[in-house]
Design a protein that fits this description.
The protein is an alpha/beta fold. It has a single domain, classed as Alpha/Beta hydrolase fold, catalytic domain (Rossmann fold, 3-Layer(aba) Sandwich), CATH 3.40.50. It has 13 helices and 8 strands. The chain has an 8-stranded mixed beta sheet with strand order 1-2-4-3-5-6-7-8, sandwiched between helices. α2 links the parallel β3 and β4. α3 crosses α4.
Length: 337
């Protein structure tokens, strides 16, 4: 029986392990992930937000197959970066899509402000400004995990610019707060992230993202995350991360799925049981949270014009766990539109 798939940063409060990556290195990266290699060139979008000069790192990848005159925007999750979309970028580009992959403010190669009022509306607006700068008028959105909440918010705010929406194991298919999960103060979120270790993060991801399996290719994503959080920018990285966790908890999109106006693909690894702050909930509440096999079917009924695609036995990141299987199912849903 697989262990519960909670968001790993809360679980890591209970983990004690040796530092270092699988190769024996102890890589630390800069506050904008300086030193970590992305699969495609990272460009910089400089703009002003909340009175601050900020920059978003992003990849803009041209089609390698016959162009179909469509652009897809990939929105990463909380514990991920644009780089973790590498297999999806290749598959989508080969099928004729232009692929734009931003790192949101507070994440990865983008700015970590001293202070920022995080909201999904603000992040959607930032992304919209990037697309305007690139002169892209209509997009398909594909969001994973927290990126699914952001993609939903973007589609609600900009329905005329959104031609199709794809959600991969999005968190926020339920409102944890309303279900009885207690609030976690910012300092508790920050404390959970100040001492990440490679071995601890890998153990969590192996148990939860990949059902106990591990491939050498997954080491890179553990190294990326631990190196960012343990690097010289740690205070700002941790502070921004805590603010983002607070945003996720306090700003549900669940009640607005019914308002989506665009065709939607809901792509669900059915073995996922991710639930924010599950460890704080009572045993009775905890037992009911994060049942993606049920949640996927339920939310597919809430969203007008939704199609549910299930991946039996896969977890929170089916596009990473079994990319070939995932993309074989994804492409017909995108290209049928």
């Amino acid at each position: 029986m697989r262990p519960p798939r909670t968001l790993y940063l809360t679980s890591l409060l209970l983990v004690t392990a040796l530092t270092g990556c699988a190769t024996g290195k102890d890589d630390n990266y800069g506050p904008e992930l300086q030193g970590f290699q992305y699969p495609y060139p990272v460009e910089r979008f400089k703009f002003t937000s909340q009175g601050q000069s900020l920059q978003m790192g992003y990849m803009d990848v041209a089609p390698t197959g016959k162009p179909i005159d469509r652009t897809i925007v990939l929105m990463h999750g909380k514990n991920f970066c644009g780089a973790t979309w590498d297999n999806s970028i290749k598959a989508l580009s080969a099928n004729g899509f232009r692929v734009v992959v931003p790192d949101q403010i507070g994440f990865c190669t983008s700015s970590k402000p001293e202070a920022y009022q995080y909201s999904f509306q603000q992040l959607a607006n930032n992304t919209h400004q990037l697309l305007e700068k690139l002169r892209i008028k209509k997009v398909t959105l594909l969001g994973h995990s927290t990126g699914g909440m952001l993609a939903t918010r973007y589609a609600l705010m900009y329905p005329a610019q959104t031609e199709q929406l794809g959600l991969i194991n999005p968190i926020g298919l339920e409102d944890w707060k309303a279900l009885g999960v207690p609030y976690r103060p910012l300092e508790q979120w920050a404390q959970s992230e100040r001492n990440l270790t490679y071995a601890g993060v890998r153990k969590y991801q192996q148990d939860n993202y990949y059902g106990g399996r591990w491939e050498p290719a997954y080491d890179r994503w553990v190294d990326m995350l631990v190196g960012l959080f343990n690097g010289p920018g740690q205070p700002l990285v941790v502070r921004n991360s805590a603010l983002i966790w607070d945003m996720i908890y306090t700003q549900p999109v669940y009640y607005e799925f019914k308002d989506l106006q665009v065709p939607t693909l809901l792509l669900i690894g059915t073995a996922d049981t991710t639930a924010l702050s599950r460890d704080l909930a009572s045993p009775e509440v905890r037992a009911k949270l994060g049942d993606y096999k049920t949640l996927g079917k339920h939310v597919a009924q809430l969203i007008p014009n939704a199609k549910l695609v299930e991946f039996e036995g896969l977890g929170h990141s089916p596009q990473v766990e079994e990319p070939e299987r995932f993309h074989q199912a994804l492409m017909p849903g995108l290209l049928a539109y």
